[in-house]
Amino acid sequence: MKHINQNLNFAKMSNFDLTDSTKREIANVTDEWPTSSGKTQYQRFLYGKDLTYRQAVLAKCAECCGGYVDGRGDCKATKCPLYPLMPYRDKD
């Protein structure tokens, strides 16, 4: 198996400045989310911080599942390319 170039192991948003009101809006939405895999990583992403590959996957799963506000569980999105890496996937 080919190794991924080390430079591709990080996800980063383009450089931009968030307004104070946008930062407050982000904090208000994600602070209501329960503690879960991906919450902190998603917040870091929104603030433009670097993420590792795994952190990016966790952040995307948290975002896609609406912050797990209905509970942490298998999303059942078996057609998603990230599903095998989903943190709460049933391991049948």
Q: How would you state the average pLDDT, rounded?
A: 79
Radius of gyration: 14 Å
Measured by DSSP, the beta-strand proportion falls in under 5%
Domains, number: 1
The strand order across the widest sheet is: 1-2
Largest sheet: 2 strands, antiparallel
Oligomer: single chain
Overall spatial form: globular
Individual helix count: 3
The number of strands is 2
Helix-strand pattern: EHHEH
Which ranges are low-confidence, i.e. pLDDT below 50, for 5 or more consecutive residues? Answer: 1-10
The rounded distance between the terminal residues' Cα atoms is 26 Å
- The portion of residues assigned to helices is 25-40%
What does this structure look like?
With 92 residues, the protein is mostly helical. It has one domain (6-85). It is 35% helix and 4% strand. It is built from three helices and two strands, in the order E-H-H-E-H. It has helices at residues 20-31, 39-46, 53-64; strands spanning 10-11, 51-52. It has a two-stranded antiparallel sheet. The longest helix is centred in the first third of the chain and has 12 residues, at 20-31. It is globular, with a radius of gyration of 14 Å. The two termini are 26 Å apart. The model is unreliable at 1-10 (pLDDT under 50).
Short description:
This protein is mostly helical and 92 residues long. It has helices at 20-31, 39-46, 53-64, and strands spanning 10-11, 51-52.
Notable traits:
single chain; 92 residues; mainly alpha; two-stranded antiparallel sheet
